[in-house]
Amino acid sequence: MTNPLCAKLGIDYPIFAFTHCRDVVVAVSKAGGIGVLGAVGFSPEQLQEELDWIDEHIGDKPYGVDIVIPQKYEGMGDMSAGELEKKLWEMVPQAHIDFAQKLLADHGVPEWPDGSTSMGLMGWTEATATPLLEEALTRPKCRLIANALGTPPADKIKQVQDSGRLIGALCGKVKQAVAHKEAGLDFVVAQGGEGGGHTGDVGSVVLWPQIVDAIGDLPMLAAGGIGNGRQIAAALSLGAAGVWTGSLWLTVEEAHTQPAQKQSLLNATSEDTVRSRSWTGKSCRMLKNDWTEAWERPDTPEPLGMPLQGLVTSDGIRRTAVYADKGECQKVAFNPCGQVIGQINQVESCRQVMQRLLEEYVDAVGMAGGMLPEG
To answer: What Gene Ontology molecular-function terms does this entry list (predicted)?
Structure first.
């Protein structure tokens, strides 16, 4: 399964594990893949603490960091993070804040201890993501940077590449992948519509080969619907240089997911997800529940654009994560995941998942090869 991309990164297998849990980053990298820490939601100080821990425990293995600098968002402009946040809050209707807070209260989700009702911008803009990127670039073992929404700004691409690291970005359309290539990125992550988090409309099996054909020799990582070795074999057979996985790691032993939240994910079927703008302001696949349905009703506020909706919902993100087992929290919890969650129904360690993926991949390739005529 190894290839030139593996050689550049110093990994054994082209299996990329996107996660917000530092323990998962370390465990996957030690098992031969590469863990990629999702930095959105962290302050620069929090990210420093997480990366300090990773550096201390990962040995000589590499890892990556994923940031979010959308190509388009409300309030774009050249201003400081503080100035931008002040401007954006002026654009948020009080009715949206009240509605979000009422949903949480009606379902018995405890308030945040200090009484605050927002986490701020959470890194959804260039002003707030830049300090996170700069922190990541101080870490020699951080070998790649990924941007989760759109082509990164040209100065950020140059900054990362000049540091000797690889930089890539996610996409859900062919034209986005072409834009990534034209901008000079080192790899593209093509995520089909069944994937978790921010995703497009086109399914993986249709999207992946189109993007491979469109970007030529630029490595494409396949995302959306990767939960076993058979799906890895399918992705690589369609031209992918590796796989970008996320939902797969939400329920592992090392994940920081609260037990109640983990159980919601383990119980879910592939039909239990929905693409909704209710949390971030952009279409994001997650478990559907009372929260997602409430924001779709005609008599309730229309979700705002990114990052305005995030200002409204950030309090709910942290409260439903921390108080996952309180009241009817899971009915309003933010549980982003892909349709592949339906085939994840037991808790495994990261090493067990990696071993299973490799064994299933070998079996799938052997089965496909056995269909060829002899001689």
So the answer is: nitronate monooxygenase activity
Please tell me whether the overall predicted TM-score, pTM, comes out greater than 0.90 for this model.
Answer: yes
- Model confidence over 291-346: pLDDT tens digits? 999 999 999 999 999 889 999 999 999 999 999 999 999 999 999 999 999 999 99
Tens-digit pLDDT profile for residues 100-150: 999 999 999 999 999 998 887 776 677 788 899 999 999 999 999 999 988
- Own/partner long-range contacts of 38-43 (Cβ < 8 Å, ≥24 apart): 38/66, 38/148, 39/65, 39/66, 39/67, 39/68, 39/123, 39/129, 39/132, 39/136, 40/66, 40/67, 40/68, 40/122, 40/123, 40/124, 40/129, 40/148, 41/119, 41/122, 41/123, 41/317, 42/123, 42/132
Q: DSSP string of 112-154?
A: PTT-----TTTT-SHHHHHHHHHHHTT-TTEEEEEESSSPPPH
Q: Helix 308-322 and helix 81-89: axis angle, to 10°?
A: 100
Given pLDDT bands bounded at 50, 70 and 90, which one contains residue 76? Answer: low
Residue type, 302: E
Q: How would you label 150-166 residue by residue, b for 16+ Cβ within 10 Å and e otherwise? A: bbbbeebbebbeeeebb
Helices (H) and strands (E) counted in the chain, each on its own, are 14, 11
